[in-house]
Write a structure and sequence with these properties.
The protein is about 45% helix and about 10% strand. The protein is α+β, with helices and mostly antiparallel strands. Strands 1-2-3-4-6-5 form a six-stranded mixed beta sheet, with helices on both faces. A hairpin with a 4-residue loop joins strand 2 and strand 3. Helix 11 crosses helix 12. It is globular, with a radius of gyration of 21 Å. It starts with a helix and ends in a 10-residue tail after the last helix.
């Protein structure tokens, strides 16, 4: 109502100015600020289940590599990006698990432009035959999820899972992403992040981002044992495998759609999962994050099965002699 709109306006007016230069001249300063953001938001708050502190992430655990590129032109940023792709390709998982490429001079105040640019990086992955090597995630100070642009107040807090101090390209290894998706559906992570960030509140999250200081939540740290996605991630990093009960409905405290059950795969129900998703999409107009995650996992399984069949030698004809 009108009161909510007024509260939002007053809340915006009360936000602090950005501390220091919008873009510091010193690269090391930007990297140190980003490391603090990763340590508190991605690790302590559990926004990224597989991040442990500012320096380690992934499955298996490997080093996080930070770099700054000050390109302001698209063609220059393309060149810098591919240089980092080559670095990932030439490194082992332990030497370099994930890259955070900070791009402070490019579309800093234009989230829409940055999103359009990000699409030009993700779309060619398959055609250039690098989709099996890397996946990309993007961060921006004004980022909004596709269902988050119209939110106000603390309902807007979920967007801070992808809001960073400066625009960033996160280069991930496809092998690790797919392994994570098998054990922890994306929709479940999104739901947990939304709850965690909403408890802090969008006003406090934005204030800390502008001040580049997260001392207001210095004592706040998620107990990974209390959150299923974080518990599963922690167990995997310690043992190197997912527990069978974490892949099964029998022991699962979350809704059935959050997991793809092994018995479903054996029973060939993956096709039904995809058909159900198509039907829901036609009737409702969109899928929830959890439904999307389950559908992606089912589609991934089916594509692998079809690929396996295509590569298998044809069966011998019983009538040939």
């Amino acid at each position: 109502g009108f009161d909510d709109d007024e509260d939002e306006i007053n809340s915006e007016a009360a936000l602090p100015d950005i501390v220091g230069e919008a873009v510091p001249a010193n690269d090391d300063e930007m990297i140190q600020v980003t490391r603090r953001w990763v340590d508190k938001m991605m690790s302590d708050m559990g926004i990224c289940p597989f991040t442990s502190g500012p320096d380690m992430s992934g499955m298996p655990m490997g080093k996080v590599y930070y770099c700054v590129d000050r390109s302001s032109k698209v063609e220059d940023l393309y060149a810098a990006y591919w240089k980092e792709v080559v670095r990932v390709e030439q490194s082992t998982e332990k030497e370099l698990s994930t890259t955070l490429m900070i791009t402070p001079e490019f579309a800093l105040n234009n989230a829409e432009m940055f999103e359009c640019f990000s699409g030009t990086l993700t779309q060619p992955l398959q055609s250039l035959d690098v989709e099996d090597l890397l996946q990309l995630v993007f961060f921006h100070p004004q980022w909004s999820f596709r269902d988050g642009g119209d939110r106000v107040g603390d309902a807007n807090a979920a967007n801070y899972a992808r809001r960073s101090v400066w625009p960033m390209i996160n280069i991930l290894r496809t092998k690790q992403v797919r392994m994570a998706q098998r054990g922890i559906p994306t929709g479940l992570v999104y739901q947990q992040n939304e709850r965690t960030l909403s408890e802090i509140g969008s006003h406090k999250l934005e204030s800390m981002l502008r001040k580049r200081d997260w001392q207001d939540i210095a004592d706040v740290k998620i107990n990974r044992g209390d959150h299923e996605a974080l518990r599963v991630a922690k167990d995997f990093q310690q043992t190197g495998k997912f527990d069978e009960k974490d892949l099964s409905f029998e022991f699962d405290a979350t809704p059935a759609v959050n997991k793809v059950d092994r018995s479903q795969i054996d029973g060939g129900d993956m096709v039904n999962v995809v058909f159900d998703a198509l039907e829901r999409r036609l009737k409702k107009g969109k899928l929830t994050g959890v439904e999307t995650s389950a559908t992606m996992m089912a589609a991934d399984f089916l594509l692998k099965e079809l690929d396996s069949i295509a590569k298998s030698p044809p069966p011998a004809c019983p009538f040939s002699h």
